[in-house]
Amino acid sequence: MDLLFGTGNEMKYKMMKERLKEFKEINVITPKMIGLDLDIVEDGNTPEENAIKKAKQYYEATKIPTIAEDSGLYIDKFSNEEQPGLFVKRINGVEGLSDEVILKYYIDKLNEHGKESLAAYHTGVCLIDKDGNVYSDCIEETKFLLTTKPFDKSSPRGGVLECISYDVNANKYFQERSEEEYKAHYKKLDDEYRKLVKKYILKK
């Protein structure tokens, strides 16, 4: 069974392939592999809304069982108005800011909230089976610590906030984790994905 993963991100595709490798009956493919190029406007208010929108458009274009996702960052000590949510790199409505400006903004905000806070990415997931039935969920990923003390601003690894993200289980900054520690952090997300695919796509 082909399962269309609605992404153009090669790294995310490789992660999904690895995540679902135990399901031998599933062949994960991307829009690029089948020559599909959709311009989807992700204007939902939550990760789940965006995931649903993407999955529906990819399914309607192909009629292939589909999975799509989107994620947002939620910081425990921030107020509702301060939450980055879907717009981690958009500050006060402004896009296209440099990594240095974005990093300074988060460090300044954390300083207002005791210098650190637990945080988690919430991943919205939408699955559409072969009959067009739509299922969705929002998974809260494993929490980590955001701190005002950067590990290494110059490191090219990861996103703009990697250098102030601390894995509380590994007792290491994100940038210094081993491959095994990296995978352990995403075990919760991987397990939830497998449950959803097994239930709604494979109907087991």
Set down the secondary structure blueprint:
Layout: E1 2-5, H1 10-19, E2 27-29, H2 47-62, E3 66-75, H3 99-112, E4 116-128, E5 134-140, E6 144-147, E7 165-167, E8 172-173, H4 179-185, H5 187-201
Parallel strand pairs: 1-2, 1-3
Antiparallel strand pairs: 3-4, 4-5, 4-6, 6-7, 7-8
Structure notes:
- With 204 residues, the chain is an alpha+beta fold.
- It has one domain (2-201): Maf protein (Alpha-Beta Complex).
- It is 30% helix and 23% strand.
- The protein contains 5 helices and 8 strands.
- Strands 1, 2, 3, 4, 5, 6, 7 and 8 form an 8-stranded mixed sheet that branches.
- The mean pLDDT is 95.
Q: What portion of the residues fall into strands of 2 or more residues?
A: 15-25%
Q: How many distinct helices? A: 5
Which regions are unreliable across 5 or more consecutive residues at pLDDT < 50?
Answer: none
Order of helices and strands: EHEHEHEEEEEHH
The total tally of domains equals 1
